[in-house]
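ok here's the first one, seq then struct tokens
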Amino acid sequence: MVKPTILKDGTTLKILGSAGLASAWYVVANGLLDGTAVGAVIPVFGAIAIATTVPLILQQRAAKKLIHDRYFSMSQRLDALSEHTCIKIVNADGKIIEVNDKMLELTGYDRDDLLNQPADVMYHEPTPGLIEEIRSTLERGESWEGETGLRAKDGRVVYTQATIMPVYDSSGNVAGSISVRTDVSNTKALIEERHTAQTLYELRDDVWIIDSDTETFNYMNRTAETRFDVTRGDYRGQSLVALHDTDDTTKIIEACRALKASGTSMTRFESNLMGVPVEVSIKFLSGAEFGGRYLILICDISARVEQEKQKSAFISTVSHELRSPLTSIKGAMGLLLSRSAGELPDKALSLLEIAHRNADRLILIINDILDLDKIANGEMEFDRQDTDLAALVREADQATAMLQQRFGMTVEMSGVDAPIPFYTDPNRFIQILTNLLSNAYKFSAPNS
């Protein structure tokens, strides 16, 4: 019967069976050589030869065609793989013996820069044990997959998703490896940007991004959206004044404009926003690609302001409580010094004078603390009047006489013999002058 052989390309060869061919040969040969001794042998052996060799010849031809087709298909696949991925081949000594053009294009190296170099020369600060992990995986005859950072020729880091497969020699031993890599740097950067955006969105402080040309919002995080009671669709393209027109928001916009006009990049100030004390930080970002932008960070400082108020109130209370008994103590020592209680030994008087002066100093320190509290709260008061500047200078000199002796200072005054009309708060003026003189005595060379 006729036996079909189906080839890979879909064509069909219908070949007569070996028995049919052998029978046909026998009939023809026997007819031509009939009646001879040779005629009895040749047809038989010819039929046997045909029956055995024809199938072998046909099978060899079919096998050669199949191998050719498979090799051609594999070559096409390798070319396509090399066109779209980075390939590196390493020998048994761990040296690079081949890299494709895609790898050179990605990293910026020349082929001569990499050939015969150690395989890990391209890794950028690998995680501890990464090289050993890859090597041990290949030695087990397994492929390694994962993300690796490659150091490009210009120093930048390129992240790739790699598959590294072992290569075997004729004896079945691992003789190197071939790595196939895909550049995932852009994907990694996008993921990091998304994580950054998510972090900004969840911050407890307000984050605003305002276009410097149109002064409209490009971005708000969750805290800012909650403060203005808006969503992304509501605030995009809206101005700050349109969302909340108050003196607070006007102050912020004016600060932004001042940054742009002056060419400076950053400013910071405290203000109130919707009745809440805040610290405002504004960064002006100028750029041709996206245009100018104001990056504004609003930090709620309500807790800090409240703590400062409590601290100020505590200091004020303690200072007042200390000043009252000190005033009484100073008054009692003054009476003793005036001999109201009778005469005192000279040594006792000397000690009493020292105590009286230090009581004065302690009262001045307490007054300074109270003054600082008033300054911080904007409650400092001044009693300006016509006075004599020369008299104030002499009084300040007398007030610091003890420090002059302590530090061995010599003080010279000039131009204070005659009155000098002056309009000021005499107590505050002496306070400032004595502070300046005290610092001068403390930080000057001894006996100067």
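and now the second one, same deal
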Amino acid sequence: MAAHTLPTDLFCNYYRDWIVTYKEGAIRKVTMDKYLLTAAWIDRLVPDLPIKDLTRAAYQQLLNGYAEHHERQTTMDFHHQLKCAILDAVDEGLLERDPTRKAVIKGKPPRAKKPKYLNQFELHKLLDVLHLDHHVNWDWLILLIAKTGLRFSEALAVTPDDFNFSRQVLSVDKTWDYKENGGFLPTKNRSSIRKVQLDWQLIIQFAELIKGMPPSQPIFVKGKVYNSTVNAVLSRRCNEAGVPIITVHGLRHTHASLLLFAGVSVASVAKRLGHSSMTTTQKVYLHVIQELENQDVDLVMRSLSGLS
């Protein structure tokens, strides 16, 4: 933080200093970019607001201004990023009270949601139309993600050395920096380092596919990779199969949803996906879990009605 910050200093400057002091170097670049985007919106909405004038009313007006351009959930995220810095300002005596208290979160109506995942029948139709020839292409990446639930960056980082064909497992311990300059990066978190069990068919297919490839080089990366390129291939395959168009990340959702519907425990799904906790899995797949709970209630009622 800037030395001797005063209540008369601009809030936009305080927030940028706070990001540099408490966040820079401590969070991943993608998260840092979100904080910097929040700072840019503060510059735009309240460029001349001193810290001392950040009252409840002023803060609510700031939120309302942001909400005019964003959905409610995005506004909620904006609020959470600001609140951390503002509470520190209170602790430092720059503000007498917490202006974020009882803030009302507004936002534009959410856009119609695109399908996030396919059901089992739709996934079978998609896999049937993949162009799986004898050379590596994006269809092979689509197959790998569909059958393992890997994140896009994890799948890009897969090398021949990561396969243990005798044990039928794939080691996930790195990602590929496709958003910047390429190269290997650490996984999203420590829980993302894992071994994913593979089915025998995928083992046979990839054992043949990667023969003679450099053992420590990524299988799918040949120059600059764009997420949009792979999504475009997936969109074409979805159209060919006559199924809803989903994204590459939607393949991960599809994988997890099918496992949950098949009766695999939330704990096992969380471990396979590399989630840091079961809470993450439960939050992301709440709709699936609720549907399964409804099925469980029906099963309980049928069981009880059979008792004499």
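notes on #2: The mean pLDDT is 91. The chain has two domains: 11-91, 120-295.
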